[in-house]
Every structure is written in C-alpha cells, then in structure tokens.
Write a structure and sequence with these properties.
Length: 194
C-alpha cells in the first residue's frame, strides 16, 4: 500500500459530526498514551500530523483522517487514564460505543496495547467489548523498540494469556516502523487492494 494523501477532515464527538459513511474505516482503540496517534503518523509517514504527547489524554475527540481519498483512519481518545475523572472515562466509552453501534462502514479495528506491560483490566474489557460486535480485530503491541530481546518471549506469552488470544498479534514500533508492512497488508486485504 502506498500513502499518497492524508487529510484530517472531520473532528467529532457525536454521530451527526461523522463523515458520510461511504468510505471504509479503520478504528484505533487503546489506553491513553499507548501510541494510537503515533501509530497513525507511522502509517501515513508523517512526523506529527496526528498530535501526540508524552502526557496521557492528548486526543479528546474522534479524528477522521482521510487517506488517498479512499478510506479513513479514525483516532480516538484513550481509556484508562486515571487522572481524568471516571465521568470523563465514561464519556469516552460512550463516544466509542456510539461509533461502534452505528458505523456500518467500519472495516477493521486495530486495538493497541503496550508491549512492555501486562494488558490491564481495561484492555481485557475493551477486547471483550469489541469481540461482541463481530468486527475483525488486530491486536497491535506498541513500543516494541523499548523491550529487550531477552524479554520478548515472556511478554508474548503474558499478552497472549491475559487476553486469551487465539490469533497472532503484531509487534509494532512507531520509532523504528517495525510492523508497518504487516499493517499495510492487513489494510490492503481488508480493502481488497495491494
Ligand atoms: N519508544 C516509543 N515511543 C512511542 C511509541 N509509540 C508512541 N510512543 C510515545 O508514547 C507517547 C504517547 O504517544 P501517543 O501517540 O500520543 O499516544 P495516544 O495513544 O495517542 O495517547 P492519547 O491521545 O492520550 O490517548 C508519546 O510520547 C510517543 O512519542 C513507540 O512505538 N516507541
Ligand atoms: Mg492520541
């Protein structure tokens, strides 16, 4: 897959603000600070087009990135950021749920988890929640560059066991771009293009 153009076209907090549902969409979900916005930048090959921050809670809206004028990557706020009130976490949950419930053109979900840590209770809840909607899901383990070679087998098992994964997951690093080709392949297959 080649990325020829990118445009942030819609910023939404409710359904009436989404684009018309005519282009396929890929949704990014995951804990705050896991690297969703960085993942988008790595995929589109731009440095800070999707705004990132070392402080959790950077993305607060659903951001629709139109790629090659043919499909969307949708960045969302992260969950499980303890400094935000429970109320705010609930609002984010409802925003994501409203999207999942209504989005007929959603093709695939990339659920990002941090390769360095055991998936949290929130990760497990989110994964179970997504499975309920029967949408194809790929688990992407971010910050791969931060885990030394001697720790990888242990982290692989921890992630697989905690989420009870039956499928493979993608090792990803926005820093080194590891895993990017695998993501392009998954997107291309989903869109039926190469
Ligand atoms: N080393 C390394 N750092 C990363 C990677 N991905 C993201 N980061 C860093 O992690 C921090 C958070 O990244 P973001 O992309 O803003 O995370 P996010 O999931 O969009 O966060 P919210 O918008 O708050 O939900 C930033 O400081 C990034 O530079 C990675 O693959 N490797
Ligand atoms: Mg973000």
């Amino acid at each position: 897959m080649k990325i020829d153009s990118v445009e942030l076209t819609h910023i939404a907090v409710r359904q009436s603000q989404y684009p018309e549902p005519f282009s396929p969409e890929f949704l990014l979900v995951g804990r705050s600070n896991v690297g969703k916005s960085s993942f988008i930048n790595a995929i589109i090959g731009r440095k800070n087009y999707a705004r990132t921050s070392s402080k959790p809670g950077k993305t607060q809206t659903l951001n629709f990135y139109h790629i090659n004028q043919s499909f969307y990557l949708v960045d969302v706020p992260g969950y499980g950021y303890s400094k935000l009130s429970k109320d705010s976490d609930r609002k984010i949950g409802m925003m994501i749920e409203e999207y999942l419930k209504s989005r007929t053109n959603l093709h695939h979900v990339f659920m990002l988890i941090d390769y360095r840590h055991k998936p949290t209770e929130d990760d497990i809840l989110m994964y179970d929640f997504l499975k309920y909607y029967n949408i194809p899901i790929t688990i992407v383990a971010t910050k791969y560059d931060k885990v030394g070679a001697s720790m990888r087998a242990k982290q692989d098992k921890l992630i697989k066991d905690t989420l009870k994964l039956t499928t493979l997951f993608v090792h990803f690093s926005s820093t080194t771009k590891k895993g990017r080709e695998e993501i392009y392949k998954i997107m291309g297959d989903s869109l039926n293009i190469s």
